[in-house]
Amino acid sequence: MNENKILIVDGMALLFRAFFAQSYSARRLEDGTPTNAIYGFMQYLFDAVNEFRPTHVVCCWDMGSKTFRTELFSDYKANRPDAPEDLIPQFSLVKDIVAALNIPNIGLEGYEADDCIGTVSTKLSELGHVYILTGDQDMLQLVAERIHVVIMKKGRNNYAVYDLDFLKTDKGIHPFQVVEMKGLTGDTSDNYPGVKGIGEKTALKLLAEFESIDGILSNLEALPKSVKAKIEADLEMLHLSRTLARINIEVPVACSLEECAWSVPLESASEVFDKYRLTNLLRMIG
């Protein structure tokens, strides 16, 4: 039963990373459609397949910018620039190519890819070991006995693989405390503030002592005056930030093991890869 090794790919994280790594590349089809991000995406995907040797592969996507989080907090991710023009046509093309490899594309309006990844990885971890491929540190909250988070680092084939032990050694926290940290410190890339004036160092110290935000709030009197004042001044934002940070692992999406078995139909995949001038990449998994 433990033979299964399931790779869950954070599609947007890979596509954006690939676009900026390949932005100097003028790869285009004859009609001018850019394919540089798709090319880089496939390289990253096949690198990971060769590195982790999964038996199953799934890919999760964001489906638009409106989610339950933007309803809770209208400024959520409002600082993000629009996607570069050359990247936009590649959003749907990349899914066609992923589908040609027999990899399920999973996404649901109103939720982020993170939530779909959290849901699918939680379910599939009952059937094997899950490896989540991403560049997003928020995913570290999903680390569990059978869920590993693979953070892509600079360059190709460069990964930090987090399991429970490595998370504790590297970050000094348990998975659930990733959410507690974000509640306290906020997240500049997602544009929510946490508690004004509380940085990572203070947050780590508080969590080491009181374990969670609830633990901290039950012991306000024991805190240094300045920290207590900051928390009391920002209580509402503390709770909201924690809610925004928490990945929803009960999204109505599903993927069975059969659906995501890794077996590339080389003949039909070759046609699609030829069409998009990606043929040499298929050799990586030949």
UniProtKB/TrEMBL annotation:
Keywords of the record: DNA-binding, Exonuclease, Hydrolase, Nuclease
Annotated SMART domains: 53EXOc, HhH2
UniProt GO MF annotations: exonuclease activity
Pfam families found in the cross-reference section: 5_3_exonuc, 5_3_exonuc_N
Domain 5'-3' exonuclease residues, every copy: 4-263
Highest taxon of the lineage: Bacteria
InterPro entries found in the cross-reference section: 5-3_exonucl_a-hlix_arch_N (IPR020046), 5-3_exonuclease (IPR002421), 5-3_exonuclease_C_sf (IPR036279), DNA_polI_H3TH (IPR020045), FEN (IPR038969), HhH2 (IPR008918), PIN-like_dom_sf (IPR029060)
Function: 5'-3' exonuclease acting preferentially on double-stranded DNA.
Protein name: 5'-3' exonuclease
